[in-house]
# Entry
Amino acid sequence: MKRARDRKDEGTTRKGGIASLAVLLAFAMTPGPARAASEVAGAGMDGGGCVTTRDDQRITHGFDLHCDPDDPPNTLDIDWAGHRFHLAAVERTRCIDDPAIDLEPPVAGFDTVSGEGTGRLNGEDGATAEWVFTDAGTAGVEDHAAIIIRNASGEVVLDVSGTLTYGNHEAHE
# Structure
């Protein structure tokens, strides 16, 4: 098993297209059968950490996101290279059990939270975020983060996806 500090070359970031996240978002946001955990009041995921890109750029994040977007609190903060995104409102969220993740022991009945929301980028309203976070087990060594941030003009300013170099995501009911 790879250790977190040995995986820094797996994260990616680009100013252009969104291919790194498009497949994850398509899977995670596609309507599908309801999960029992998603229907439990308060079910969600929290945590944070860092994804380090191939060029050693550190993207840090912290969040508390629920399966029901109307179940507060829903928070997300992303920091990178002098920039900061702060989530103001969740537009859509979904919790799923990804069959490719073998979470032992299964804690919440799901292991992936994805969503979309609006917020502030560097203090200015109108930015948007899309995310997919996974909980792949104890200590976060296989947890994953995929994030796209767009400014108020719709330009992609951050597109990153990778295994955490440090941190932990925890699904909970």
Notes: The beta strands are 12-13, 44-52, 58-66, 75-80, 83-96, 112-121, 124-134, 144-150, 156-163, 166-172. The longest helix spans residues 19-29. DSSP finds two helices and ten strands in the chain.
